[in-house]
Design goal:
- By secondary structure, the protein is α/β, with parallel strands linked by helices.
- It has one domain: NAD(P)-binding Rossmann-like Domain (Rossmann fold).
- The chain is built from nine helices and ten strands.
- Helix 6 links the parallel strand 6 and strand 7.
- The longest helix has 22 residues.
- The structure holds NADP nicotinamide-adenine-dinucleotide phosphate.
- The site of NADP nicotinamide-adenine-dinucleotide phosphate has 32 residues, from helix 1 and strand 2.
- InterPro entries: NAD(P)-bd_dom_sf, SDR_fam.
- Keywords: Oxidoreductase.
Amino acid sequence: MSTIVITGGTDGIGRYLAEEYLGRGDRVVVIGRDPDKGRAFEEKAGELGTFLQADLDSVAANRAAIEQIRATHPVIDTLVFCARFYRSFRTRTVDGLEATFAHFYLSRYLFGHGLRGALERAPHPAIVNVAGPGASLAAADFDDLQSTRHYSGGAALGQGGKLNDLLGVAFAEQYPQGRTRYILVHPGVTATAQTGAYDPITAAMVENMRRNAKPIAAAADPIVELIDTPPAEPLSAFIEGRRISVADRGFDAAAARELDAYTRDLLASL
Ligand SMILES: NC(=O)c1ccc[n+]([C@@H]2O[C@H](COP(=O)([O-])OP(=O)(O)OC[C@H]3O[C@@H](n4cnc5c(N)ncnc54)[C@H](OP(=O)(O)O)[C@@H]3O)[C@@H](O)[C@H]2O)c1
C-alpha cells in the first residue's frame, strides 16, 4: 500500500488523482481550504483518505500541515502539488506576501523540503509538481517577485510556473544522493474547477476556455503513469505527456540557486 499526499487534492486534477489511488487501496492525504469539499472527500474515501484543512497562502499553515503529515505518515511514496487559485487582483497574505507567490511557489518549496525525509523512506519516491514547465526565464520578474510594481493574475501564475521549474532544478542539485525524483508537469488546458477570484472579463474568458478544454482524465492519466513509473533522472519535465529537455536556459542552475537563497532568507524572516 502506497501513501500519496496531494495539495489541492479536493478538486480538479488533484481530486482525480486522489480518487485513482484510493480506488487502488492506497492511503491518500489531500489538502485544501474548503471544509465541504474535504468532508465530501472523506465520506467517499473511508478509512484510507484524510483531509487536512489548510490555507496554503499562509506560511504558518503550511508548516503546521507539514508537521501533522510528518507525525502521522513517516513514509510517503508520492507528493503531488495541485493547489492553485487565480486572482485577478493582487492580494496580500497574512505574511504580507503576494498570494499567488505564496501558495503556488512558496508552499511547494516548504512541502517538498519539509516532507523529503518521509519520501526518502519510500522505495520509489517522487514529487510531482503540476504547474507549467518550459517557459523562458523572462516569465518571472526576479527584481520584483512579489509583483509590487505590476500585477496581473495571468502573469502571477506564469511567474509561479517558472519559479516551480527553478525549484525543481535547485531541489535536484541540493540532494545529489537523494532518491526522490522531481517531476515537473504541464497538464495543458483542462476543464477543471479552475478556482479563482475573477474579474468579469477574466471570468467569461475562463468559462469559454473551460468549455473547449480537455477532460480531466486526459490531463491526469499521463500524470498517473509518471507517478507509477517515475523517470530515472533526478529532474524531468513534461508538457501534456510529452517529455521536454531540462537542459535549456529556462532551467538555469544559477537562477535556481539565487531563487533558493532568496527563498531561504524570506522564510527565515517569517
Ligand atoms: N486546469 C488547467 O487548465 C491547468 C492548466 C495548466 C496548469 N494547471 C495546473 O494543474 C494543477 C491543478 O489545477 P486544477 O485546474 O485541477 O485546479 P482546480 O480545479 O482549480 O483546484 C484547485 C485546488 O487547489 C486548492 N487550493 C487553491 N488555493 C488553495 C489554498 N490557498 N490553500 C489550499 N488549497 C488551495 C483548491 O481547494 P479549495 O477550493 O478548498 O481552495 C482545489 O482543491 C495546478 O497546479 C495548476 O496550476 C492547470
